[in-house]
Design a protein that fits this description.
Elements: E1 3-6, H1 12-21, E2 36-40, E3 45-54, E4 57-64, H2 74-88, E5 93-98, H3 102-107, E6 111-113, H4 120-123, H5 126-131, E7 137-142
Parallel strand pairs: 4-5
Antiparallel strand pairs: 1-2, 2-3, 3-4, 5-7, 6-7
The structure holds coenzyme A.
The site of coenzyme A (COA) has 18 residues, from strand 4, helix 2 and helix 3.
Length: 155
């Protein structure tokens, strides 16, 4: 049985260990541990994800599932959980940066966005400024519902 719960300070070593295993940045993680969620079975931590709250948008980051637990839908469950949370908090968009998982996130509805047009709140994050390379793609998912006029794209 999989449970997803919010992390606390005691989870920090396990989060960092898992992110390092998955070769994701950890430098700023101690300062945002409250933004993390853990997927747990009775005996293991089988995934982590974070959602940073930045004014009216969220930044999804640090999604990691240990190699031995992949391809079972755990990553998808974690993403769905934070997207639901972002929607419940009234965010207009969820953004993320990724170097090689853009195909994964496009299946979840994220679309590549222009880095130059990123909101200031996203540009100010350490992920955007320092931790992700310039080559990382910026992606976003629109959460707000609006009435669509013919000819307008879904972005
Ligand atoms: C990306 C990751 C979280 C996926 O976790 P998971 O629990 O295996 O994912 P799910 O079970 O929900 O989905 C598996 C599907 O995604 C696909 N997938 C996995 N990684 C992918 C990637 N980088 N690009 C495109 N598709 C990918 C799998 O091939 C599989 O496809 P299928 O359903 O058609 O067989 C995991 O591979 C991981 O931890 N990777 C290293 C860290 C990382 O890249 N994180 C994302 C950037 S923040």
């Amino acid at each position: 049985m999989l449970e997803i719960r919010q992390a606390t300070g005691v989870d920090l070593p396990r989060i960092i260990d898992l992110l390092e295993t998955c070769q994701l940045p950890t430098e700023d993680v101690p300062g945002i541990v409250d933004s993390f969620f853990l997927a747990r079975t009775d005996s293991d931590v089988v995934g982590v994800i974070a959602l940073e709250r930045l004014t009216s948008v969220g930044l999804l980051r640090s999604l990691a599932v240990p190699p031995q637990f992949r391809e079972r839908g755990i990553g998808r469950r974690l993403c769905d959980h934070v997207i639901d949370s972002a929607r419940a908090q009234g965010f207009a968009y969820v953004y993320l940066l990724t170097t090689d998982a853009d195909g994964y996130f496009s299946h979840l509805g994220f679309r590549v966005a222009d880095r130059a047009g990123a909101p200031e709140a996203i540009r100010a994050t350490s992920q955007f400024r320092e931790l992700c390379p310039e080559s990382a793609k910026l992606m976003r998912l629109r959460l707000t519902v609006w009435s669509r006029s013919p000819g307008l794209s879904e972005e």
